[in-house]
Amino acid sequence: MAIKHIVLSVAAAPVSLITAKYAIYLAKALQAKITAIYVVNEKVLQELLKSRIFVEVEARDYERDLEEQGGLFLERIKKMAESKGVECSCMLLKGGIHEEVVNKTRELGADILVMGELKELLSRKEVFYDEGERIFRESPCPVVVVKNPAEVEKLYKELI
Amino acid sequence: MKISDYLQKENCITDLKASTKQEAIIEIADKLYSCGKVIDKERFIHDVLRREELGSTGIGHKVAIPHSPTEGVGGFVIGFGRSIGGIDFDSIDADKVNLIFLMGTNPGELGLYLRLLAKLSKLLNDENFRRELIAAENADEAVSIFKRYEM
Question: How distant is the Cα of A45 from the closest Cα of chain B, in angstroms?
């Protein structure tokens, strides 16, 4: 099976840059293209509205801010990929994180899904509710979980 | 990612002196500031109080979660205050509030902040959890209760 399309799942957090760098490294090595996905977590905003911790106007503000942060982050990843000669398209989605990532990965027919390191699970509940864990388990294609940031930085720097 | 990763006994006040919403927010913010969790206390308090103007964060069941993204903090912060006698927080159920969680985040870390807010909200839906926190003897016990319920 040739690996020609890599889906990269990112959050707008610095740690996701490491994930992105590894995806770019893989894509370059395999001559594959990347689709980077960021999901605005609308589900959590709805939960917070329902529990009355948020008011409507506040939830809208957060949604707008998350969208803006996600957009900027995706733009940065696209530039990083292009600087290494890797084709990268970006998708900003809204909804529940694992549902959106898994569905879009399936829809795109991706060959590999690259995601950040899974956190240590301290309870059985987390296996069912942690978004990363669910992406990992429900992905329709093989998943690469990026580890060892120092090594990733080294590989990325060596890329021409 | 758990609340108890961020809530230390140093950030807890189990016998708030405050008698109003504003005083409670200031008292907990003072505590967070004295622990070095807050960079700009006035900014933090201002942003949280401005958020309260949109609508009370007294969510019922004797709980309030005043919160705001703010440049007054460097990352995610949470402080806990318990008022034995209860404080009027304009809560949706009009009841006084005993458990107050003051939360803030730097605007650059919204994703984590929202997930932790949702997590706290789920924990507080549990009546036993609330009852145990109200009855906690001290800050150590309050933190232990969090750890136990988050396992």
Answer: 7
